[in-house]
Amino acid sequence: MPQQFTTLIRKQEEAIIRAWVDEMYAERRTELPAILSYEQLVDHFPDALLEIAQIIDQLATDDEIIESARRLRAHAQVRFHQGALIDEVARELMIFRKVFSDFLWREGISATEGDLWELRDALRRADRFVDELIAQSVVVYAASLRPPVETRTSVWPPPRRRRTDFPENRQR
Hints:
Layout: H1 4-26, H2 32-35, H3 38-42, H4 45-57, H5 62-71, H6 73-81, H7 86-111, H8 116-144
Helix pairs in contact: 1-4, 1-7, 4-8, 5-8, 6-8, 7-8
């Protein structure tokens, strides 16, 4: 399978990141640009762009897209520890979706040689990937807050054991 989107995204990585940062600084519903350094704000982008490019080029299935998003779960963990609110992380990813979709519409026509069906499929995979990143963020925040919140699709992190979970420690 040709790496047409991987090549295109690598060549345009800085422009994509710059467009995303401009949108983030213009967004009034998040304080991430105010509480994070530029490096902290964009640190995860090269990995996310590489994953999304591979998803598109390899015609990834939904299961492969989910697994790819799980590999980037650390982004949500880092944001949680940086003090970002869950809605800010969701907004950050929604802005990423908008910027990346605009990029694909603008530059993807040449990568697909004008095949709108292929471009539509690339956009669908990219959107599915961002949806999964948002879902992974929800899982991370739910698991990081107390009390633990159960989810249907994740066994991470493992449930904490309490003394009352062991029969010998239960009070009668």
